[in-house]
Task: inverse folding
């Protein structure tokens, strides 16, 4: 049997981390939680996850900066990113083009929909090979 796909969730709001973690674990994913951008970056470098779900606004390194750092490194460039944000209006196409953000999800969001989008990413043959 294959190992579950690893997903890193980064958000400084503990209640969001817990709800998303519960939903993804229940669906069979291996989930690692990070409480800020720096911790998320350390987990990304160590674990090379199959997916990053990150909040835009976090202390230290924000979600957009995480996605840009990943995109700039050959070994992390292909990891898809879902960006959670209460500030969709502040994102522009030029910034998004320098990342591997595959979906921007406005807050508040439905954990059920987030799970569906996550499963859709992995059903795409580009990402189905896992971590």
Result:
């Amino acid at each position: 049997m294959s190992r579950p796909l690893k997903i890193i969730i980064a958000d400084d709001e503990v209640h969001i981390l817990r709800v998303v973690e519960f939903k993804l674990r229940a669906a069979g994913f291996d989930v690692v939680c990070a409480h800020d951008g720096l911790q998320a970056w350390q987990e990304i470098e160590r674990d090379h996850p199959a997916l990053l779900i990150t909040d835009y606004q976090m202390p230290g390194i924000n979600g957009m900066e995480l996605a840009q750092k990943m995109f700039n490194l050959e070994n992390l460039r292909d990891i898809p990113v879902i960006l959670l944000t209460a500030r969709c209006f502040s994102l522009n196409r030029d910034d998004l083009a320098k990342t591997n953000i595959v979906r921007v999800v406005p807050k508040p969001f439905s954990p059920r929909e987030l799970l569906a989008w996550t499963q859709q990413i992995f059903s795409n043959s580009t990402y189905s090979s896992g971590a």
Remarks:
- Residues 14-26 form the longest helix (13 residues).
- Helices lie at 14-26, 37-47, 63-71, 93-97, 111-123.
